[in-house]
Amino acid sequence: MELIQTIEQWAWIGWLVLILAFLVIEMLTLDFTFLMLSIGGLAGLVADLLGAPIWLQVIIAAGVAAALLLLLRPPLLRRLRRGEDPTPSNVDALIGLGGTVVSSVGAHGGQVKLANGDVWTARTEAGDLLPGTRVRVSRIDGATAVVRSDSPEPLTPAQEDPYA
């Protein structure tokens, strides 16, 4: 019985430590999850200062944290990400990009010049592609573009290549 009284007497220190730990973790993650948990801990601290028993403090803290996680966090995240640029960048921007085969591309290698002007090492998953063939990037595998044919036959010099 004496242990329970000691815990209830010093519970406010536990709540403060918990709140500070959650705030530090929140500063590292920036995802609003631990912010909501720290506000729940603050509700537990207030319940302790008002004289609630330890079991009620925990229930109040958990209830407030759960309500904030479910009701407040989603709109905050939407508002935070509202101004993000939806345009793909880096490797994601290359997926679906057209290009032209520079040197024969097969299952083990070759080169393509993409529409953005970059020359990439490339390979196909099926068949070989001759120089001048129009291609489209299916995916990026490490530093190699996996391409598929965009036209059934290679371009002749008389045809104009929009990707060159």
How is this fold's topology laid out?
Layout: H1 2-9, H2 11-29, H3 33-49, H4 54-80, E1 98-103, E2 111-114, E3 119-124, E4 134-141, E5 144-149
Parallel strand pairs: 3-5
Antiparallel strand pairs: 1-2, 1-4, 2-3, 4-5
Helix pairs in contact: 2-3, 3-4
Describe it.
- The structure is a single chain.
- With 164 residues, this protein is α+β, with helices and mostly antiparallel strands.
- 43% of the residues lie in helices and 18% in strands.
- A 5-stranded mixed beta barrel has the order 1-2-3-5-4.
Q: Note the gap between the termini.
A: 83 Å
Please give the radius of gyration in angstroms: 30 Å
Specify the helix fraction band.
40-55%
- Strand sequence of the main sheet, in spatial order? 1-2-3-5-4
String of helices and strands: HHHHEEEEE
Name the average pLDDT: 88
Biggest β-sheet strands, sense, barrel: 5 strands, mixed, barrel
User: What is the molecular shape?
Assistant: rod-shaped
Strand content: 15-25%
Q: How many DSSP helices?
A: 4
DSSP strand tally: 5
Helix/strand-derived category reads alpha+beta
The poorly predicted ranges are: 155-161
